[in-house]
Design a protein that fits this description.
The complex is a heterodimer of chains A (640) and B (549).
Chain A: H1 7-54, E1 63-73, E2 76-84, H2 86-109, H3 116-135, H4 139-157, H5 164-195, H6 200-206, H7 212-229, H8 237-241, H9 247-256, H10 259-268, H11 270-273, H12 277-298, H13 304-324, H14 328-355, H15 373-387, H16 393-408, H17 410-435, H18 467-482, H19 496-501, H20 517-542, H21 554-557, H22 562-611, H23 616-638
Antiparallel strand pairs in A: 1-2
Chain B: H1 18-36, H2 43-71, E1 74-76, E2 81-83, H3 85-112, H4 118-135, H5 139-157, H6 164-195, H7 200-209, H8 216-232, H9 241-248, H10 251-276, H11 281-304, H12 309-330, H13 333-360, H14 376-379, H15 381-395, H16 401-415, H17 419-447, H18 467-472, H19 476-482, H20 485-491, H21 494-503, H22 515-533, H23 536-542
Antiparallel strand pairs in B: 1-2
Helix pairs in contact in B: 1-2, 1-4, 2-3, 3-4, 3-10, 3-13, 3-22, 4-5, 4-10, 5-6, 5-10, 6-8, 6-9, 8-10, 9-10, 9-12, 10-12, 10-13, 11-12, 11-17, 12-13, 12-16, 12-17, 13-15, 13-16, 13-22, 13-23, 15-17, 15-22, 16-22
The chains are: A mainly alpha (640), B mainly alpha (549).
């Protein structure tokens, strides 16, 4: 049954190809349904594979399906092979599952868009790439998916490319990811140079035998790649801009796919990471910086999706804290639960945007609770889950990460807890601004109308969406509530995820100061209090009044100016370099060389012409001359 | 009375000469038909006869080939012919060239209203010479075959009585050809004088057992023989005839010179130097090395300044000759095999290209200026597409047989080792890049806008051999600017052009493409692609292209 692994990425891939050929003819909504069913089938294939993997035990739970020899170049052999093991199956399950729900949601959300079939082609390709990424049996297959995800994110973020901001955001995502990809590539080069193979199995078995420095370099370089995909400090600007894409895209990129790729890669390489404590420390520090910086930025955003974007960045920071402090299971646990509640939050936000006729400004919302009760409820659940209020999913998963951090370094734990408070606060702020308070959307006349949707209306009548949107939202809400069941900390037998993932993961060095059971209880209580406290503060401040400029400093609205700094330092100087290239190097150096060669060619050609005059006597003379030359050459060689 | 000496007649193995005999039979049949049948005979019939004859010749070659594979190589007709894989495979390639020639000539003959069998009959006779050269195992035999090949070609070159250029080409070819033949025979005389034989096997045997105390005379003979071949294959500096003759001769005849003549001459050149003269490899290798470099570079640079497509292809064929000579520089059987591979590949791409050129030439066989190719793609996408394919193949683009051919020769050369061989590889690659320029230039022109705006309007050259006119039409701007598609896009409103075209369609000087030409082009194109994608077929075939000695 493990053989079903091949179908997991193939089905959405073929569906995308099918839609490329026939999508236009099928049109709306058939194209959307086909895409949704394909991803659903992929989920079923993941289930079957999962059952297959469950059938074996321990180390046998790694099943590799070889398809063909992809790149046979001397000693560089890369197989096209997919790997079904607990880690990849877990990833495949939640990627395909959450993606299927987002597909279903998109059918209603994208209703009336003129490029409806195209949207689903991209979505399917995106999911297929992500599944290739997680199922690949070697670094290069993963990289294939990695790049596929990158390209599709470009297509999807700039899906409404008539809007200059969307087009720019797509380019930014692409460029930032490309920069980080260099790290991934170099990690692969180094791995191949030192180990001679890119297969995960070989990497893991050879890891103890290569030098510590090389190992650390591989891990750090791979992490550079992950920093781009998973939007870590300082490369997170693109993710906030990526909100220009349609909301289902934001949900897909943020919740289930793409951004989790970096975390997945690091967990996949955890057997290497476990041997490189310095690199692990580096990852933890980047993680905590990201988590805090992004959470702080999230407190001051006014775009309903931007808050969620920074929240995603912050949560990814948490995941890397888990990865860095050796709590690999906690990182995956947080990733899965985050997939549930972040998808939930995005889809609810999409529902609000949809109901408000593409309004995204929180300050122009308010009092939607009565008009969109189901959406409000769902958003509330999402808030509770991400804040880490017991017994919602986030409480357990974030608790595990913080426990791991505590066991490594108490200061990291402290920063994590403060960030958790911020998380609860900014989500509460968002909830209050959108669903509580006064109706503010009637204050300013609505002139902006949807450029692409056919159902644009002037009047705003917020309403709950139809079942295709609401269904996925409610299902995800349930998952966000009960997701914690995956890995309950109360008894060893309840740590299902931990036992299940163990064969795929590295064994991190034992924590410096292991937390006793009592300490764990204390930590959990602290977490809960902080979460509730943050939420209460938000409620107290924002539920009545929508303007507190002192709490929204400009530097946080601009996300600490990190992006602007990058823009000034790198983009401006890069532009300057490009200008120099265009104005000086191109015309003088390169053109000069080209024209020079042309001149030489001309000179030679004309010279040849002069010789070949076309008169027989001259030609005969040339032949005679050639004869004499050759005879002389033989003679000189012969020495007479 | 002297006692009557009985002349010892050699035993003639008719199977061994079946491919050649069939070609001669076909030629005689056509000549007899035209002499006896009063009414006008459609060129289609002659074309079909030629085509069938060439196929029969290939069939006989296949039988011979299978026989050789089963029972081994042998000498025939008193040692004059060597029946071995090398000769037979080259002979079959000649057959293929004649078959395509027959097809593409049909349209030409009908269009020009030539109703005699001469073009095709002479082609068959000339092909006989080429096949004999490939198998000949005696210098005298090679010379005879060379003359059979050449005399027919002289006539072919001058067949177009309406154009003075044709007659001029024939005279030029004849005079210079006679000159080089004299050099060749003189060389044979020296070789005979020093070794006591003209038979390649016996010469090889002589050198195996004897060491010449003074080998000067032999070296002179060897060099002269090399020059005789170099003239036929148009290697520099013995190439001077080829651009003029290629341009002047009727286009089917040009295709014949570019393919069949080179096949025969190269085959004999390889056989002589790799079997009989192999002991003197140290002496001839540097000569061939130098000639090859000169040929590669001149073939590449010379083509840059041409505005006549036939002239351009003359330089292209010079450049190919350079590549083939590289196989000789390798100096071993591997080199010979790769040369055979190159020759087969070359046969298809050059015949294909000339088939297109024959069609594009239009009535009067005059439309060979590059301006005649402007916008070809619009009216004849098939012609321009296949022309692009053949030119790409000549440039050595992967997934065409041209790439396989170049790769084969260069890899053999590189694996033969030595600093010199790497130098040659680099020179060959550079020349390949340079010559890509003029191939692509034609392609760009065929795909650019058909209306005469835009810079590419080199004045049509008279078929003169004046230096001045060609010099004037060439300038740097032309090279750097006018072939840029960007320029077209910037300067002209495409929609306007299209509207103008719709209103008054250009007259099409080409008209309907004859079916036979389409078949010829299709065969060549298919072979170019299939053999390019599956080169294993070719490599397997030429692995049997071995010499008897």
């Amino acid at each position: 049954m493990e053989h079903a692994v091949i179908f997991i990425p193939i089905i959405p891939l073929f569906s995308a190809l099918f839609l490329i050929c026939f999508g236009k003819k099928l049109g709306e909504p058939l194209a959307g349904w086909i895409a949704t069913i394909a991803v659903g089938a992929s989920f079923v294939a993941s289930l079957i594979t999962w059952i297959g993997v469950l059938g074996s035990h321990g180390i046998d739970r790694t099943f590799i399906q070889h398809l063909f020899n992809w790149l046979p170049v001397g000693s560089f052999q890369v197989q096209m092979a997919f790997q079904a093991d607990p880690l990849s199956v877990t990833m495949a399950l939640f990627v395909s599952g959450v993606s299927a729900l987002i597909h279903l949601y998109s059918i209603e959300y994208m209703h009336g868009d003129k490029d409806f079939p195209k949207f689903f082609i991209y979505l399917n390709l995106f999911v297929a790439s992500m599944l290739i990424l997680v199922l690949g049996a070697n670094l290069l297959i993963t990289f294939l998916g990695w790049e596929g995800v990158g390209v599709c994110s470009y297509f999807l973020i700039s899906f409404w490319f008539e809007r200059p901001k969307a087009a720019t955001a797509g380019k930014k995502a692409m460029i930032v990811n490309r920069i980080a990809d260099v790290g991934f590539l170099m990690a692969m080069f180094l791995a191949f140079q030192s180990i001679g193979s890119l297969n995960y199995s070989n990497l893991i078995s050879s890891a103890p035998h290569i030098s510590h420095t090389t190992l650390s370099a591989i891990v750090v370089l791979a992490f550079v790649g992950a920093m781009g995909k998973s939007a870590q400090f300082p490369l997170f600007g693109w993710l906030a801009d990526a909100m220009e894409g349609p909301t289902p895209v934001s949900a897909l990129i943020h919740a289930a796919t793409m951004v989790t790729a970096g975390v997945f890669l690091m967990v996949r390489l955890s057997p290497l990471l476990a041997l490189a404590p310095g690199a692990a420390h580096f990852i933890t520090i980047i993680g905590i910086i990201t988590a805090f910086v992004a959470a702080a930025a999230g407190t001051s955003q006014n775009d309903i999706k931007k808050v969620l974007a920074y929240s995603t960045v912050s949560q990814l920071g948490y995941m890397f804290i888990g990865v860095g402090s050796g709590a690999y299971v906690a990182a995956i646990f947080l990733m899965v639960t985050h997939a549930f509640y972040k998808a939930l939050l995005f889809l609810s936000a999409g529902s609000v945007i949809h109901g408000m006729n593409d309004e995204q400004d929180l300050k122009a919302m308010g009092a939607l609770r009565a008009l969109m009760p189901m959406t409000a409820l769902a958003f509330f659940v999402g808030w509770m889950a991400i804040a880490g209020v017991p017994p919602f999913a986030g409480f357990f998963s974030k608790g595990d990460v913080l426990l791991g951090a505590y066991q490594q370094n108490i200061f990291i734990w402290l920063a994590g807890v403060i960030t958790a408070g911020l998380t609860s606060y900014y989500m509460g702020r968002e909830f209050c601004l959108a669903f509580l308070g006064k109706r503010r959307w009637e204050e300013k006349p609505k002139v902006k109308k949807s450029a692409r949707s056919s159902h644009a209306v002037k009047e705003v009548h917020p309403h709950d969406p139809g079942f295709k949107m609401l269904g996925p939202i409610l299902l995800l809400a349930c998952l966000a509530v009960i997701g914690g069941l995956l890995n309950l900390p109360f008894a060893s037998s309840l740590k299902v995820l931990e036992h299940w993932l163990a064969p795929s993961l590295g064994v991190a060095p034992a924590p410096l100061h292991a937390a006793s059971s009592a300490v764990q209880w204390v930590l959990a209580v602290v977490d809960a209090i902080v979460a509730l406290g943050g939420g209460y503060i938000a409620f107290a401040i924002w539920s009545k009044k929508s303007k507190h400029p002192e709490l929204e400093p400009v530097f946080l609205q601009n996300a600490w100016y990190i992006d602007a700094t990058g823009d000034t330092v790198i983009a401006k100087s890069g532009t300057k370099l490009a200008e120099i290239s265009a104005d000086v190097i191109e015309p003088v150096v390169i053109d000069g060389a080209v024209v020079g060669i042309v001149n030489i060619a001309k000179f030679v050609g004309v010279g040849l012409h002069r010789i070949a005059s076309g008169f027989v006597r001259r030609e005969a003379l040339i032949i005679a001359g050639g004869t004499v030359t050759l005879l002389l050459a033989v003679g000189i060689r012969g020495g007479w | 009375m002297l006692a009557a000496q009985t002349l010892a007649l050699p035993k003639i193995s008719y199977w061994a000469i079946a491919p050649e005999a069939i070609l001669i039979g076909g030629a005689l049949l056509m000549l007899a038909m035209s002499a006896t049948i009063r009414s006008k005979i459609d060129p289609v019939i002659f074309s079909i006869i030629t085509f069938v004859t060439s196929l029969a010749s290939i069939g006989a070659g296949v039988i011979l080939y299978i026989n050789v594979l089963k029972h081994g190589k042998y000498l025939a007709i008193d040692g004059a012919l060597s029946v071995d894989g090398f000769g037979i495979i080259v002979g079959m390639a000649v057959g293929v060239a004649i078959a395509i020639f027959a097809l593409s000539s049909e349209g030409f003959l009908s269009r020009e209203g030539w109703d005699g069998p001469e073009l095709l009959a002479l082609g068959l006779l000339s092909g006989t010479g080429a096949e004999l050269m490939a198998m000949a195992n005696d210098l005298i035999m090679i010379f005879l075959a060379l003359e059979i090949l050449s005399i027919a070609l002289y006539v072919l070159a001058g067949m177009d009585g309406r154009r003075t250029a044709s007659g001029e080409a024939a005279i030029k070819y004849l005079i210079l050809g006679g000159f080089s033949s004299a050099i060749f025979v003189y060389g044979i005389a020296f070789v005979y004088g020093t070794t006591g034989s003209t038979n390649l096997a016996q010469i090889a045997a002589f050198f195996a057992t004897n060491l010449l105390a003074h080998d000067g005379l032999f070296l002179v003979g060897m060099t002269l023989v090399l020059i005789g071949f170099a003239f036929k294959v148009a290697a520099v500096p013995f190439h001077v005839w080829s651009p003029d003759v290629y341009q002047g001769a009727p286009t089917p005849a040009t295709s014949f010179m570019a393919s069949v003549a080179k096949l025969g001459a190269f085959a004999a050149l390889l056989r002589v130097f790799l079997s009989a003269f192999i002991s003197y490899k140290q002496d001839w290798q540097p000569l061939v090395f130098g000639v090859a470099i000169a040929t590669l570079l001149l073939g590449a640079f010379g083509g840059l300044v041409q505005n006549n497509v036939k002239r351009m292809l003359a330089y292209s064929s010079i450049s190919h000759a350079g590549f083939i000579l590289l196989g000789l520089v390798v100096g071993a059987e591997l080199g010979a095999q790769r040369v055979v591979l190159y020759l087969i590949a070359y046969t298809f791409i050059v015949m294909g290209a000339f088939s297109v050129i024959t069609v594009v030439g239009g009535k009067g066989d005059n439309g060979h200026d590059i301006s005649n190719y402007r916008g070809l793609a619009r009216q004849h996408p098939y012609l321009s597409g296949s022309l692009a394919l053949f030119l790409m193949a000549q440039a050595g683009v992967p997934f065409t047989v041209g790439f396989v051919a170049k790769f084969g020769v260069l890899s053999a050369l590189a694996s033969s080792g030595g600093v010199g061989s790497y130098t040659l590889v680099v020179v060959a690659l550079v020349s390949s890049v340079i010559s890509a320029f003029y191939y692509l230039r034609i392609v760009v022109v065929t795909y650019s806008s058909p209306v005469g705006i835009g810079a590419i309007e080199p004045e049509p050259l008279a078929e003169s051999t004046h230096v001045a006119s060609e010099l004037e039409s060439f300038n740097v701007d032309e090279l750097s600017m006018e072939y840029s598609p960007l320029k077209v896009a910037v300067d002209y409103d495409i929609e306007e052009i299209e509207r103008a075209l719709d209103e008054s369609p250009l007259e099409d000087p080409i008209g309907k493409v004859p079916l036979s030409s389409t078949i010829a082009i299709s065969i060549s194109a298919t072979a170019t692609v299939v053999l390019g994608v599956f080169p294993g077929i070719l490599f397997a075939l030429v692995s049997h292209a071995t010499f008897l000695f």
